[in-house]
């Protein structure tokens, strides 16, 4: 009976020890998992490294921690550290470091007498004991170094811990590298977006500069005849004032009504009121038309320059964008240019009208520059279904049902000089131009392509030398239930 009791006690004690060990391992696993989450949640390289070193501190205590990576034969360099004094320090690979690189974690009782530290005496003031732990990084062995201020601090227990968590250390550092690459990729993406935005704005300003003289002329013309009309109106005002003053005197007089009517009629004829009123009517209508023309031009400019990229609800009218763009380019259109418009009724499309106007102005300017005498510019808008889109843009993702079933398009066709077949594949590349040196930056069509892509659309081109060119831009029509 006693033997059975002892066995039960031993088994119970064993169960308690196993439970304690399991609980300790669970807590350790939770801690490491939480640490890994903290590492991967970092949004900057600095935070990433700080979180990584915090995780390492939960495994092995340290005063300073840093990582050595290979630089040149016989030397390693510190790439990251908790103490900035260690950064970029150069380390000769002595026997201790070489043994570590062969795969053995090593505890150094007193680092101050180790050859690798001899040339770094200013760092030994706060460092006595050292623990070196090897790990594989990009198929090369690097070393993570734990430093303590007390001689003999690191023992075989710490060496065993380092060996035990070596795989975890490697996985952690691998995750850090992956996160760093992701952060770098995000940074490059943001920088690229900033550069593209700057280029789009610069191209827009260049287009405004190109259009400025013509727009000023288009505004000055109606303003000139409005001003002239007001001069004429100013000339009529004294006559009107005299007529009304004398009419008022007649009406207040004691004369019989018949006599008053005769005198008023005489005044009406004397000041030629009938002709004056006809002129005033004409002046009013002409001035209204002139002001409306100025308002239309200003609205077109506002539509061209507006920036509502942050407005997710922004929509545009493709036909209105065509009208605005043509209005801005009116002064650039010579009398010899014949413009034909075939605009079908379209629903509102999602996106920035300013971007669409910039696209259309760029394409129309190119078309006008490509044509000489007997120039014909054709602008067409309408609908395309999925098969037509697939034929027009064979490389695009086009579905036969759902929100992308219908597309709106605008086609701009000229009868200019055309583009050689071997150059068609390059026209949307940055800095590529078919214009003579000094006449084109090679950014217009690249920016046009970028803007169309940002709007969720596609752009294609067909051309034949000495016959003409046609650009077709398509936009998805939002699905409405």
UniProtKB/TrEMBL annotation:
Its EC number is 2.7.13.3. Signal peptide: none annotated. It holds the Pfam family HATPase_c. InterPro entries: HATPase_C_sf, HATPase_dom, His_kinase_dom, HisK_dim/P_dom, Sig_transdc_His_kin-like_C. Residues 214-479 form the Histidine kinase domain. This is histidine kinase. PROSITE patterns: HIS_KIN (PS50109). It comes from Opacimonas viscosa. It is an enzyme of class 2 (transferase). It catalyses: ATP + protein L-histidine = ADP + protein N-phospho-L-histidine. Residues 166-205 form a coiled coil. It comes from the Bacteria. The keyword ATP-binding applies. Keywords: ATP-binding, Coiled coil, Nucleotide-binding, Phosphoprotein. GO terms for molecular function: ATP binding; phosphorelay sensor kinase activity. The keyword Lipoprotein does not apply.
């Amino acid at each position: 009976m006693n033997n059975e009791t002892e066995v039960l006690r031993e088994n119970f004690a064993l169960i308690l020890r196993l439970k304690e060990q399991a609980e300790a391992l669970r807590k350790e696993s939770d801690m490491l998992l939480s640490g890994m989450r903290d590492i991967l949640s970092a949004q900057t390289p600095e935070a990433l490294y700080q979180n990584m070193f915090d995780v390492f501190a939960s495994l092995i205590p340290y005063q300073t921690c840093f990582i050595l990576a290979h630089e040149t034969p016989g030397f390693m360099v510190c790439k990251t550290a908790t103490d900035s004094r260690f950064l970029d320090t150069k380390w000769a690979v002595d026997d201790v470091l070489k043994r570590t690189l062969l795969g053995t974690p090593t505890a150094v009782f007193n680092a101050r007498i180790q050859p690798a530290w001899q040339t770094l005496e200013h760092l030994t003031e706060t460092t006595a004991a050292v623990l070196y732990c090897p790990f594989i990084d990009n198929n090369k062995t690097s070393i993570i170094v734990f430093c303590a201020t007390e001689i003999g601090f690191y023992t075989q227990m710490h060496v065993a811990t380092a060996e035990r968590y070596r795989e975890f250390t490697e996985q952690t550092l691998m995750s850090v590298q992956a996160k760093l690459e992701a952060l770098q990729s995000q940074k490059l993406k943001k920088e690229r977006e900033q550069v593209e935005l700057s280029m789009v704005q610069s191209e827009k300003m260049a287009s405004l500069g190109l259009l400025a003289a013509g727009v000023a002329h288009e505004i000055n013309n109606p303003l000139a005849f409005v001003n002239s009309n007001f001069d004429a109106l100013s000339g009529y005002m004294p006559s009107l004032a005299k007529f009304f003053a004398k009419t008022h005197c007649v009406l207040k007089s004691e004369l019989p009504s018949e006599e008053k009517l005769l005198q008023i009629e005489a005044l009406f004829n004397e000041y030629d009121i009938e002709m004056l009123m006809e002129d005033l009517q004409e002046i009013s209508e002409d001035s209204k038309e002139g002001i409306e023309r100025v308002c239309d031009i200003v609205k077109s400019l506002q539509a061209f320059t507006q920036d509502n990229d942050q407005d997710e609800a922004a929509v545009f009218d493709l036909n209105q964008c065509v009208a605005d763009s043509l209005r801005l380019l009116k002064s650039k259109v010579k009398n010899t240019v014949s413009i034909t418009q075939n605009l079908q009724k379209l629903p509102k499309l999602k996106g920035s009208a300013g971007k669409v106007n910039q696209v259309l102005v760029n394409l129309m300017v190119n078309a006008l520059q490509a044509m000489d005498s007997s120039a014909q510019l054709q602008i067409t808008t309408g609908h395309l279904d999925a098969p037509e889109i697939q034929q027009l843009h064979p490389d695009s993702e086009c579905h036969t049902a759902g929100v992308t079933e219908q597309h709106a398009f605008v086609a701009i066709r000229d009868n200019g000089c055309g583009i050689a077949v071997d150059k068609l594949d390059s026209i949307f590349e940055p800095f590529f131009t078919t214009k003579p040196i000094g006449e084109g930056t090679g950014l217009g069509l690249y920016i046009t392509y970028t803007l169309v892509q940002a709007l969720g659309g596609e752009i294609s081109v067909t051309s034949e030398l000495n016959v003409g060119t046609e650009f077709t831009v398509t936009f998805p029509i939002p699905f409405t239930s």
